[in-house]
Amino acid sequence: MSDKEVILTPDGLKRLEDELEFLKSVKRREVAERIKVAIGYGDISENSEYEDAKNEQAFIEGRVITLEKMLRNARIIN
After folding, report:
1. Three-point CA angle 57, 19, 70, nearest 5°
2. Which CATH number does the domain housing residue 10 bear?
């Protein structure tokens, strides 16, 4: 996503901020725990739980980056 201006309503801004906070405070912790548990199953080369958790972690981190860029470039309209 480019650093183009993102036009948001106050409600839209709040929803994006809430999503970002949820991803950072809840989902990151949940996926880290899933990775830890999956590693405990042994060989990660054939561990679908580990792969699923790592894929979810990548999605979450990508979404965090996207949301941070959007919020950084937000212009609020009423």
Report:
1. 95
2. 1.10.287.180
Q: What is the pLDDT along the chain (78 residues), one digit of tens a residue?
A: 468 999 999 999 999 999 999 999 999 999 999 999 999 988 888 889 999 999 999 999 999 999 999 999 999 998
Residue with the two structure tokens 């106050």: 10
Within the chain, strands assigned E span 6-8, 74-76
Pair 10, 78: CB distance under 8 Å: yes
Within 10 Å of residue 22's Cβ, how many Cβ atoms? 11
Specify the number of domains making up the chain. 1
